[in-house]
Amino acid sequence: MKTLLFISEVFYPSESATSVYMAKIALKMTCTFNVKAICIDFENNLPRFENFNDIKIERINIRKFKINNKFIRIIRGLYSSFLLLCKALINIRKDDIVFVVTNPPLIPGFIALICKLKKAKCIIRVDDVYPEALIISGVISKTSFFLPILHFLFRGFYFLADKVIVLGSDMEHVIKSGQVSTHLNTQVIRNWGDSVSVFPSSKFENAILNSLGICDKFVILIAGTVGYVQGVDTIIESAKILQKKHPDILFLFVGGGSQAQWVKSQVIDFSLDNVIFFGTLPKAEQNIFLNACDVSLLALKKDMFGIGVPSRFYNYLAAGKPVIASVDIDSEIAVTILENNIGFVSSAGDAQALVDAILCALNLSSDDLKLMSQAARSLLMRKYSEDVIVNQYKNLFLNT
Questions:
Q1: How distant, in Å, are the alpha carbons of 170, 263, 313, 349, 355 from that of 326?
Q2: In degrees, to the nearest 5, what angle opens at C-alpha 339 toward C-alphas 384 and 358?
Q3: Beta bridge partner(s), residue 299
């Protein structure tokens, strides 16, 4: 039986999106492969070695720094990348299949080099495109002297991989845009939504909406990471525009992230009584919070085309919620929404356009809203369920 080795900074039992996807893919491969995983334990409270449902997990313990700023995060990322590469160098054997994700983003290309030297197969899964993600996040400038160096460090050895998995056609376009990247052997395998734990339910029976006493409002849900690239500034600007003329519309944030405090301060500074920041809830309660709305909202910063694909989109579909997307109008998500009539699209960064999209949703009849909800759930089950996507990974590994 061939060895299938997963390499990721995060893995079971972490509840981060990358960890959940990697662990679930691994679990479905244990009948066909000898499955192993190498990851990092930042909390130092997990066993170094663990057999989890026939997945042999080896964790590298790294002490968590008490100080948490950008510089410390960079140092920690470099250190964890170095340790993962060292561990990979020891563990990778001839004819192994190595599945590595861009978390941390520095290691996949170097893992591909190690695999080539050791005559193992390498598959890279690109969750986010670097260094472009750093530019959008404001970490480096488009004109930075270091950009070509970073491009080489992040993607210089991708061409050595047997396959590069991207999460959408937009990402495939971006990842192939560089000189070195044009000959990559890419394949699109999208993320999935949890169609078992998440399913449509009535907003009038929702525990969150009832506890807040807002079942009579038109509730727009923003679930998941509240970070810099999530376009929260556009959402807040649209809330300011809608506040006086449409008090029946309410924005509900469920999640956390680097921009969470900024959102809270905006709510206070501008007396935004149409915005509620509910905070983070455990994954076990996602069916409750994903159904705490009439429609869901997905926003990204301008120029995020192909750099990252938000996994929340698929769980919005699982809950059967129409999706309002403030994204690049040519993006795959925008096209998917419009082609399948499951929501509305506005241009990323345009608050007034987002307001117009929200008002279109508000003016839908209850029957039309129901049809959109049914179409969203149906689309997930046809194209983006766990069984459909994991089967694509299984075929990939078997044919590598």
A1: 16, 17, 12, 7, 10
A2: 95
A3: 326
Distance CA 339, CA 326 (A): 16
Q: How many other CB atoms are there within 10 angstroms of residue 130's CB atom?
A: 20
Q: Classify domain 203-383 at the CATH superfamily level.
A: Glycogen Phosphorylase B; (3.40.50.2000)
Q: In this structure, are residues 106 and 154 in contact, taking their beta carbons and an 8 Å threshold?
A: yes
For CA atoms 319, 194, 192, 16, the dihedral sign is positive
Q: How far apart are CA 166 and CA 174, in angstroms?
A: 10
Domain-wise residue ranges, the chain: 3-192+385-398, 203-383
Same fold, 3-192+385-398 and 203-383: yes
The residue type found at 242 is L
Q: Are 270 and 258 in contact (CB under 8 A)?
A: no
In single-letter form, the type of residue at position 156 comes to G
- Tokens 């893995």 belong to residue: 11
CB 322 within 8 A of CB 343: yes
Phi and psi, residue 5, nearest 5°: -105, 120
Confidence of residue 179 (pLDDT cuts 50, 70, 90): very low
The amino acid occupying position 366 is: S
Tens digits of residue pLDDT in 288-329: 999 999 999 999 998 898 888 889 999 999 999 999 999 999
- CATH code for the part of the protein at 3-192+385-398: 3.40.50.2000
HSE (CB half, 13 Å, CA atoms) of 8? Answer: 27
pLDDT tens-digit series, residues 336-379: 999 999 999 999 999 999 999 999 999 999 999 999 999 999 99
Token code pair at residue 162: 């047997």
